[in-house]
Amino acid sequence: MSNLKEFNIDGTIYTTEIPENVANRKKWERPNPNHIKSFIPGTIVEIFVKEGQEVKEGECLMILQAMKMKNKILMPFDGVIEKINVSVDEKIPNRKVMVEVKA
Question: What are phi and psi of 54, to 5 degrees?
Answer without folding.
Answer: -85, 135
